[in-house]
Amino acid sequence: MTPTDTTTDRGVHIAGLTKVFGEGDAAVHALKGIDLEISSGEFIVVIGPSGSGKTTLCNIIGGIETATEGTVTVAGQDISTTKPSKLSDFRRDHVGFIFQFFNLIPTLTARENVEMIVEMTDRGDKDKVASHLEAVGLGDKLDSFPAQLSGGQQQRVAVARALATDPDILLADEPTGALDLPTGRQILELLQDLNRQGKTIIIVTHNLSVGQIADRVITVVDGDIESIEVNENPAAAADVTW
Fold this sequence. Notes:
By secondary structure, this protein is of the alpha/beta class. The protein has a single domain, classed as P-loop containing nucleotide triphosphate hydrolases (Rossmann fold), CATH 3.40.50.300. The chain is about 30% helix and about 25% strand. The chain has 6 helices and 10 strands, in the order E-E-E-H-E-E-H-E-H-H-H-E-H-E-E-E. Helix 3 packs parallel to helix 5, helix 4 packs across helix 5 and helix 5 packs parallel to helix 6. It is globular and about 50 Å long. The N terminus is likely disordered.
């Protein structure tokens, strides 16, 4: 097998990933030597119970947390050896984040919430902000404040914000957790469509049903990968029930 050229590869390559919180008798081993490969353009769903380590795994992939041991290469960069002070550059250049509770600034309009991330990261194009919001179905809500938007519309703003810097990977932590079924389906449809356009999508969730739309479902239990299920024919997001 030809070795992966990580200088051009946009995937995720993890070997021996260990994460320990605390020290001595109080130490908690959140991850226990995980090995994992995620190809560029894959749609991955990571599931597991609370405290399983799934969020820690994805936080390390996104450069929010650092590994205790092991190697983690994301979008061609070995972030396991990157100084914490430089991880902000990695996040800015390569990763878009979508969270359960939107994290929109209430005093800014939808347009301004997206423009802000472009200004803060110095990536993307402010002139394209409207087109990002149009792409998520909010072309008529550019000047609306979060309080004037439904939960699903606020999450769509969060998706547009994540896209504004043209990241290699979109990390979504329980993106449907605060939404009802119809609205949750709409967000999953949007993520599925972005994946068809070539974005690597990684969703962290406790909701087993979301795994129906993934290329692979990775189950994390007690700090280790319990199973990896391959979906030969992922379901359409519109058909997901929970």
